Description:
By secondary structure, this protein is α+β, with helices and mostly antiparallel strands. The protein has a domain at 30-83. Helices cover 30% and strands 12% of the residues. The protein has helices spanning 27-30, 42-48, 54-68; strands at residues 21-25, 79-83. A two-stranded antiparallel ribbon has the order 1-2. The protein is flat and about 40 Å long. Residues 7-84 form the PPM-type phosphatase domain. It comes from Streptomyces marokkonensis. Keywords: Hydrolase.
Amino acid sequence: MRTSPPRPRTVSWFPFPAGATLISCSDGVTEARGVTGAPYPLEERLADWTDISPWEVADHLTEDVGRHTAGEHRDDIAALVVRRTG
C-alpha cells in the first residue's frame, strides 16, 4: 500500500550557471562526527576542492569523511556531484 507524504512537496528554484557544481549528500556526511565529537567541516572542505572534477570531489569527500571519523561510520555516506557545462 502506498502512502502519501506527510506534507506537500515543495520546489525551489536557484541559479545554476555554467561551471557551477551542485552537491547533494546524505546525512551520513552532514552529521558525521570525529572522534572528539567535532562535526565534519563540509563547507570548508568543499571550498578547497573547487578546481577538481566532480569524480574527484566525490572521491575526496568519501576519503575525507573516513579520515575525519577514523573509519567509524554511523550512517550511510552518499553523494551526488553534478557540474553544469557549457
